């Protein structure tokens, strides 16, 4: 790996992990450019009209569609200026690599992590947030402590062959570092998870975390109870949405 190798980046910031099993942990977020899905339905990025049965739209679409390709050296310099990157990672802050779909650039991620180790003797705690449609390289898997996967349901407006690959889901199911996070807005969402993903054996229910779909405090309070009842009945883990609880609709925090 070399400091001149490049990676396409959309944004980076320091905050708390707001979702899933590491909720509340201080983390630096590195959002990479591009995604292989367009949740909300193809075309939603142009006119904001939901299509193909979508009930929600990706909330970072405007961010991951834009980006800058940076050399590893430039990226670390910018991250350091903004987040005190090297020092924070050395003292246990997690690095959350997100997107878009970050595994579209997985060779570059791997090279970047090797660069951090070779240049700064830094082997940080890594979380990768993925839609679980791309199988990770084994060399990358060896460096990732948390695979935060979020397979998409039919309410994303994506067709099944685009969003579900049974063999990749099975690979993640067998991986001890995987969590499957599903956003649930209605009881029907859970029925789909049950019949299409749990009953088929593709997703291990002990790795599932259900989270209410909500982008305001009012909506969160309304849906928390419905999701809690599903989790109690089916013995599943639940998480809420820390950023909505603390900052409500404010973004960029
Ligand atoms: S997979 Fe994730 S990043 Fe990609 S469009 Fe869907 S919600 Fe957005």
UniProtKB/TrEMBL annotation:
GO biological process: tRNA queuosine(34) biosynthetic process
Keyword Oxidoreductase: no
This protein's name: 7-carboxy-7-deazaguanine synthase
Subunit structure: Homodimer.
Pathway, per record: Purine metabolism; 7-cyano-7-deazaguanine biosynthesis
Entry binding sites for [4Fe-4S] cluster: 35, 39, 58
Top enzyme class: lyase
Keywords in alphabetical order: 4Fe-4S, Iron, Iron-sulfur, Lyase, Magnesium, Metal-binding, Queuosine biosynthesis, S-adenosyl-L-methionine
Amino-acid positions noted as binding Mg(2+) in the UniProt annotation, renumbered to this chain: 60
Domain of life: Bacteria
Family: Belongs to the radical SAM superfamily. 7-carboxy-7-deazaguanine synthase family.
Main function: Catalyzes the complex heterocyclic radical-mediated conversion of 6-carboxy-5,6,7,8-tetrahydropterin (CPH4) to 7-carboxy-7-deazaguanine (CDG), a step common to the biosynthetic pathways of all 7-deazapurine-containing compounds.
Molecular function (Gene Ontology), one example: magnesium ion binding
Cofactor(s) named in the record: [4Fe-4S] cluster; S-adenosyl-L-methionine; Mg(2+)
Recorded catalytic activity of this chain's protein: 6-carboxy-5,6,7,8-tetrahydropterin + H(+) = 7-carboxy-7-carbaguanine + NH4(+)
Positions of substrate binding: 16-18, 31, 98
UniProt cofactor note: Binds 1 [4Fe-4S] cluster. The cluster is coordinated with 3 cysteines and an exchangeable S-adenosyl-L-methionine. Binds 1 S-adenosyl-L-methionine per subunit.
Keyword Iron-sulfur (UniProt): yes
Organism whose genome encodes this protein: uncultured Aureispira sp
